[in-house]
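Hi U.,

Before I forget, here's the chain from the pilot set. I'm dumping it here mostly so it's searchable later in email.
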Amino acid sequence: MNADIKLGRIWGIPIGLNYSWFLIFALVTFSLATALLPAQFGGLSTPAYWLMAAITSLLFFASVLAHELGHAFIALRNSIPVRAITLFLLGGVAQITREPQSPGVEFRVAIAGPLVSLAAALSFGLIYLVGQEAAFIAAPALWLARINLILALFNLIPGFPLDGGRVLRALVWQATGQAYRSTRIAAAAGQVVAFSFIGFGLLGVLSGGLFNGIWLIFIGWYLRNAAAASAQYAGIQETLRGVRVGEIMSRRLIQVPAHTPVESLTGPHYLNQGERAFFVGEDSRIQGMLTLTDIARMPRSHWALTPVQNIMVPDYLLTTVDADTDLATALDMMENANIKQAPVVENGEVRGLLSRERILRLLQGDEAFTLLRRAA
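Structure:
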């Protein structure tokens, strides 16, 4: 989930909003201003209700952000990088860049979010008890206490990708010692949860609750896709684990001088051979690397007069992988760096190139490619 609007950083983590967030913010504010707040505490003016509703909505999404920061804090404490936190239509997501390496860490990261939401529910509940004589305090506080409690309980449902699904995976992992099996079980539970939401949504639609029914169906559809993606990713990781990068890397390194015009790399000599990445340097000295993606970012009119050294990624900024690294780890590194190719290092020198294309060929069971791997 990408952030369209950057809000800043907390603990070095970029915080942002997806455009879909504005839709849910508007719906929550409208619902609070026109129905929920007037029903619980009457006698206020319409502008007062709208102001209370807007502030309450912002506090709610601050609570959602706090929930995600709970996950992020524990992840960082366990040396797990967090790429970003994004608020969107269905709440928020902390983009944790790699899976925990033990069931204990998995459990702590997963449970942190619901615990933060429970703490928020308790805090707003206390504010309601203290300020219930003042409607402008009591009305938002009561709703925020309830919604944070619902948020915590909803996320504790035991099915991927919800926090409860990750708690379930941690418990099964601890009991069996098998990370892959625990992921499959949690993902299957997530599918059951997802189809339950879809079923209740259909019943709601047939019973006349069109909006609530469609909303439940949408949540179920989102959960089903996320659970399926989790299971698929776990399967990919299991297949790649134990396979060394050196077994499938390409040892064909295309090296071009630093002064070579960018346009030269787009000619048939290179493209017809399927080349997608080029090393820049002289003799055995590699100064950097560039890919067709780097070239595509540049206006075509500049290709003829721009040397490749102007747009290459310098060697000291390259994400490299060791030839002895297993493919599951290498793929995680490439995903985190958002790159499609990575130089492979053997004994401190670049000896090959790993690409997502070669990983995909392995996953697809390319027979010729398997023979090449065995010969490596």
